[in-house]
Amino acid sequence: MHSYTHSAAVSIDIEGMTCASCVARVEKALLKVPGVETASVNFATERATVHSASGDATPLLAAIAKAGYGAKVTPSTPQHSGGHQHHDEDAQGLRRDVILAAIPTLPLLVLEMGGHLYMPFHMAVISVVPQGVLNLIYFALASFVLAVPGRRFFVSGIPALLRGAPEMNALVALGSGAAYLYSVVATFAPQLLPSEAQYVYYESAAVIVTLILVGRWLEAIAKGRTGDAIGRLVREQARTARVEQNGAISEMPVEQVRVGDVIVVRPGEKIAVDGEIIEGSSPIDESMISGESLPVTRGVGDAVIGGTLNISGSVRFRATKVGGDTTLAQIIRMVEEAQGGKLPIQGVVDQITAWFVPAVMVAAVLTFAVWAVFGPTPGYVFGMVNAVAVLIIACPCAMGLATPTSIMVGTGRAAELGVLFRKSSALQQLRDVAVVAFDKTGTLTEGKPALTDFILDDDFEHDEVLALVAAVEAKSEHPIGSAIVAEAERLGLTPGTVTDFVAEAGNGVTARVDGRLVAVGSQRHLGHLDFSDFSAAIEGFADAGKTAVFVAIDDKLAAAIVVADRVKSSSAAVIAELHARGLKTVMISGDNQRTAEAIARQLGISEVRAQVLPADKVATLKALRQFGKVAFVGDGINDAPALAEADVGIAVGTGTDAAIESADVVLLGGDLRGVLDALTMSRATMRNIWENLAWAFGYNVALIPVAAGVLYPAFGILLSPMIGAGAMALSSIFVVSNAQRLRTVAGSLR
Ligand code: ADP
Ligand code: MG
């Protein structure tokens, strides 16, 4: 297939980012390193992408460590074990801590809350164990919970607080620590407190720690699943290959296959690496790459792609790309890059979360102060409990997860459908697109025209003209050229020697063949000649959607060659569906007006811009902006500037590398249904992000005042810190699970 290039960037896996505010902190630390140009940290993938002058990772790792996080360089080739082990390790460590925290918390909760809910129970307990001894037991249990499983909150929360950069851990440490310290004073120095305030809150301290650990554990499990689409792609890679060496076949790990090796594939086996078939032919299931579910038959000379499945035949192929160069490895890298990217709206979210934690602390202090001064006695006990509730409920976790998890799941699902988002920002852009403009040849049509008619001037001879033209076109990469060369080859004509070859993009080609001047191209290309003898015949072909090119030999019009290209089978249905979704469609083509209009009519495209020179495609696109944002779908080298100019450039994956490099989105199989899928995924993902953000912000906006106690004067409602911890955990889980729903978005017209 083709190769995708990537700008040199260092990718670093980060550990210990517990909340969205950590993202800004790590980014800031990275940007301070000399030579760093850009740094982007993704909370969901736990990965930083850094562009720096030196490309050296060492100072970057040091800067991250200094900011208080773990860091290591991301391994360069996708691993079979999946790229998400550290999520699993996270999940395992958290599971252990949840158990360690839950065991002592449970009796604490039962004894204390049981007594609150049912007085006789309290009496019964007291009659067996006096209150003083009971408090000592509580103290021991809570101390264990905070010091062992809860250690993580204090170890990173307290230094962060001291640095003046409090984060999520600081909130938990402050909240549970305050409840704990108050209880310690009430236990060991009760004389410091008035008699009506001598209560202990050990159970609050322990339950907060336990519930937040439960929330993080569930979140780690869900995050691990978020990257599943990539995991699946990674698993599509073959593990071994049967390589022919000196006549014998030996099975070897796929990592050892070299370019040029001959690989033998039996029915039902995976194609190990990219290559070209040298013997045999077989139907091959390429759905993992293209999203196209029907198998395609590949024979000698055809390309095969590593990771696809050979269904029934047996083939031998020569390896052309191995290791990190294979199409699959490149796709994985591209999807990972897009998944790690940030949408424009994320910038706003990051800014909000950066001031959110300090703001919550101020709110907690205010809560304490207001209750201590104006609250019912014991004022500072109410103040302490409510301030703790505010600290605990206001975790900005869900906010931090809202955008990145949706992007991960959305781009992953798109990749499964054969749509690669090279730039995740295209997800946001595409939603607002009003016009979809298509290139004609190779995009709406197959791009494999065949010669259908040959109209000759009486002074010339057919085979001679065709041989001359084919000689020139052999040097052109244009599909029309290929059609002419193919026909000459079929007739067994021998091409002459070509000199002075000049290609004029969008117009035609000119060269000398054995001394004769041969020019082939559009009417415009041969503008000074008289076409009147041909025009009547040509119009009929044009109205049938066929393209005529003209041949001038030694400046005399010699022939018109007519080629016809089939439209892709899905094109018309895709155009109809785009119209049904309220979008405007436009065809932009270098071909002549009549031909372009005929094809547009066949497909139902509403507007045609024909005879557009490659250089003018950009201007044409700009003019289309009057209708709104424009997406452009194209495949050729001549489409590259337009792909870059469009608000969203969509490259057909069967097209040229230049087109793919300039695009924001790549349709892997070349199937235009991918345009619909890209639009669907964009809308679904953006809706999902808004749902998540609305939930995360709404939850905080609604519950912080409740936790602070604003409902108390009127309704007597207070939110216990324990409920706060539960609600906080639930809100993160809601966000991550909501993003999972994107995995089931259906492909279009399938
Ligand atoms: P499209 O937009 O359909 O992909 P191009 O811009 O590539 O078309 O080409 C526009 C026109 O220029 C063609 O329809 C053809 O008339 C002429 N042309 C370009 N290259 C060649 C070539 N190598 N041989 C003959 N004609 C050519
Ligand atoms: Mg084209």
Give structural notes.
By secondary structure, the chain is α+β, with helices and mostly antiparallel strands. 51% of the residues lie in helices and 18% in strands. It is built from 27 helices and 26 strands. It has a seven-stranded mixed β-sheet with strand order 14-26-25-24-15-22-23, sandwiched between helices. Helix 5 packs parallel to helix 8 and helix 12 runs antiparallel to helix 13. The longest helix has 36 residues, at 673-708. Residues 1-7 and 80-85 have low confidence and may be disordered. Adenosine-5'-diphosphate binds at residues 439-441, 473, 476, 478, 480-481, 506-509, 520-522, 547, 549, 589-591, 614, 636, 638.
Task: Give the structure's gist in a few sentences.
The protein is of the alpha+beta class and 750 residues long.
Instruction: Choose one word for the global shape.
Output: elongated
Structure annotation, total helices: 27
Strand percent estimate: 15-25%
Q: What's the Cα radius of gyration?
A: 34 Å
Bound molecules: adenosine-5'-diphosphate, magnesium ion
Relative helix content: 40-55%
How many angstroms does the end-to-end distance come to? Answer: 25 Å
In spatial order, strands of the major sheet run 14-26-25-24-15-22-23
Main β-sheet: number of strands, strand sense, barrel status? 7 strands, mixed
Q: Uncertain runs with pLDDT below 50, 5 residues or more?
A: 1-7, 80-85
Number of strands: 26
Structural class: alpha+beta
**What is the residue-averaged pLDDT?**
86
List keywords for this structure.
six-stranded antiparallel sheet; 750 residues; binds adenosine-5'-diphosphate; 27 helices; binds magnesium ion; alpha+beta; elongated; single chain; disordered N terminus
